[in-house]
Design goal:
Helices cover 52% and strands 10% of the residues. By secondary structure, the protein is α/β, with parallel strands linked by helices. It folds into two domains: 2-82; 93-428, Glycoside hydrolase, family 3, N-terminal domain (TIM Barrel), CATH 3.20.20. It catalyses: Hydrolysis of terminal non-reducing N-acetyl-D-hexosamine residues in N-acetyl-beta-D-hexosaminides.
């Protein structure tokens, strides 16, 4: 009789362990304990099956196995509950100095009620709009939502929000529709030499005017990565730099990127050169995997960095730091939290005085080492704006990471002060 009881139990345990193993394996790719966006379903399944199995194994005297099921089930509950716990922690934090940290966050959202409470109490410095915020809506409705959030800030006597978007042109035009789809900047590369800058600038003016009309203040464009010479990796499902870059010629990319940037600035929209130190030589998809760049600085200065320098020489332009590690500068440390890259190369060597923004901190390459490590490292490396755009459930955990680091004295106060001055200049413009 015992054999007949233990056999189905073994099958149940095997199925459960296999399911948990698949989730944890996927977590290495998506960089979340329970895979986004199915985290809550997965948590519920893990907890329910774990609870049932725990009870059964206790009844048959296998308590150590029951304890294992109980521990993993509780981990699933914790993963589902953490954003809620962190939300209450963040909202209860009203100390004046917390603004020094919270004003650096630019966040995406899918729930307008959530973003209103963050905007109202100055827990963030900006918002990020993408397709989920505009799909099925008119330009008037989108503009009214942005203006409503800005009105909350004005009524509270707070600085206006930075409002960012990914409107590169071509395949990455996340506000289109309702905005018209702008042509890819690569479409200008074939024009005669003396026509490229003017055409790019005009495209920037047209696009900047459309963005500004609905309230966008920062465009996360142009893409300054050079067009790759080799095909993308088989797991590159999101980056797709070949479809987004301007040219494989550094000079052509520099002329078009700088012209486009000047056009945006003329319309009051901040351009953002991305994704420094460049993804043109990187085959791994940083949305999922860690990635590195092993090229010497001297070679990058002559090639990949030419478009970046052209844009960053323009007063008012910003730069986005990718999660690629520049191994010859700081081995294994993503550029988004590398002080040697941000402060050493961009600030000290190049003399860049503009705003630096991280790529999305919910990407795999940023989170594999832990969200708090990514947040704390970005602050101390000299990042001015921390982007938490895709996974809205990570907003409160990311904010708490910053506040905990501040309270524990792990943030460089001098770096925060310099960063605050750059943000003041950006908002002044």
């Amino acid at each position: 009789m015992t054999r007949f009881i233990h056999k189905p139990l073994s099958i149940l345990a095997g199925v459960w362990v296999t399911f948990a193993a698949i989730l944890f394996w996927l977590a290495l790719l998506i960089s979340d304990l329970i895979v986004f966006p199915y985290r809550f379903i997965a948590c519920a399944i893990l907890f329910t099956v774990g609870l049932v199995a725990c009870i059964i194994f206790v009844l048959v005297g296998r308590r150590w196995i029951a304890a294992l099921f109980a521990v993993v089930g509780m981990l699933a509950v914790w993963q589902a509950a953490r954003p809620w716990i962190d939300r209450h922690y963040v909202l209860a934090n009203r100390e004046p100095e917390t603004v020094d940290v919270e004003r650096h966050f630019v966040v995406g959202y899918d729930n307008i009620a959530t973003i209103r409470e963050l905007v109202r109490d100055a827990h963030i410095g900006g918002i990020f709009l993408t397709r989920r915020n505009v799909e099925g809506r008119t330009l008037t409705e989108v503009a009214a939502e942005i203006d409503g959030l800005q009105s909350i800030r004005r009524e509270a006597g707070l600085p206006g929000l930075i409002v960012a978007a990914d409107q590169e042109g071509g395949p990455v035009s996340h506000l289109s529709p309702p905005l018209p789809i702008p042509p890819a900047l690569s479409s200008i590369a074939g024009l005669p030499l003396d026509k490229r800058f003017e055409a790019a600038e005009q495209l920037g003016v047209v696009q900047g005017s459309a963005l500004r009309e609905i309230g966008i203040t920062m465009d996360l464009a142009p893409v300054c990565d050079l067009m790759p010479q080799s095909p993308p990796g088989i797991f590159d499902r999101h980056t797709r730099i070949a479809a987004r870059s301007i040219s494989d010629d550094p000079t052509i990319a520099a002329v078009i990127a700088s012209g486009f940037s000047k056009g945006l600035l003329a319309m009051g929209v901040t351009p953002t050169a991305k994704h420094f130190p460049g993804l043109g030589r990187v085959t791994a998809d940083t949305h999922l995997f860690s990635a590195s760049l092993n090229t010497a600085e001297e070679d990058l200065l002559k090639t990949d960095w030419v478009p970046f320098r052209a844009v960053l020489d323009i007063p008012g332009a910003a730069v986005m730091l990718s999660h690629v590690s520049l191994d010859n500068v700081e081995f294994g440390v993503p550029a988004s939290r590398s002080k040697r890259v941000i402060t050493g190369i961009l600030r000290e060597q190049w003399g860049f005085r503009g705003v630096a923004i991280s790529d999305d901190l919910t990407m795999g390459a940023a989170q594999h080492a832990g969200l708090c490590r990514a947040v704390e490292g970005a602050f101390n490396a000299g990042i001015d704006l921390l982007l938490v755009s895709w996974d809205a459930d990570k907003i409160y955990p990311a904010l708490r990471c910053g506040l905990d680091a501040l309270n524990a004295g792990r943030l460089d106060r001098a770096m925060l002060k310099q960063s605050a001055q750059r943000l003041d200049q950006l908002k002044g413009r």
